[in-house]
Amino acid sequence: MKNKKIVKKILHYLGEIIVVTIGIFIAFQLNNYAEAQKMKNREESSLKRIVSDLESEKNWLKTNQKHFTRSKQKLERILFENDRQNLDSLYYFLAREYVHFNYNVEYSTLKFSGNLFMISNDSIRSSLVKYYEFNYTYSEEIAQRHKSFVENYLLEYLSDSFSLNQAFLYDGVEVEGKLEDQEFIEKIETQVMWYGTVLTTIKLDYVNHLIDAINKEIGKNANKK
Question: What is the C-alpha end-to-end distance of the chain, expressed in Å?
Answer without folding.
Answer: 56
